[in-house]
Write a structure and sequence with these properties.
It contains four helices and six strands, in the order βββαβαβαβα. With about 130 residues, it is α/β, with parallel strands linked by helices. It has one domain: Transcription Regulator spoIIAA.
């Protein structure tokens, strides 16, 4: 995903974040190994960006790494506190696998769906915006 020129970009260690015109938090994952410590810091960063209010997340995890079990479990516990729903975009097998592995092991702590493109992902997320 390419952020529009007029938005503020928030650079985190695991992703670059910005809000789109609908208030969806967009994230481009970075190619950084996911550890429990890094995920905790990432979620603290998200809380700061969002004012600690749950938002819809559109995440491009094309460049992401998979997580270990402890990090996945932590993410599953925290996700409902941070996000209303998550649409995941990935154009790589590893990115799609990371998303599918998460839901395989942790279920869906929030509505999560994987997409091949941004347009379909945003359309799906719109139903959760005013939840």
């Amino acid at each position: 995903m390419i952020p529009p020129e007029h938005v503020t970009i928030y650079e985190g260690e695991l992703a670059s974040f910005w809000f789109d015109e609908n208030g969806i938090l967009c994230a481009n994952s970075k190619s950084v190994p996911r550890t429990l410590e890094k995920q905790k810091a990432n979620y603290a960063f998200v809380r700061q960006i969002t004012g600690n209010k749950p938002v819809c997340l559109l995440a491009d995890n094309t460049a992401t790494y998979t997580q270990d079990n402890v990090t996945r479990e932590y993410s599953a516990q925290e996700m409902p506190k941070l996000f209303k729903a998550m649409a995941v975009i990935s154009r790589t097998t590893i990115g799609r696998a990371a998303s599918h592995l998460f839901t395989w092991f942790q279920g869906e702590p929030i509505p999560i769906k994987t997409f091949d493109n941004e347009k379909d992902a945003k359309e799906w997320l719109m139903q959760y915006l005013f939840f």
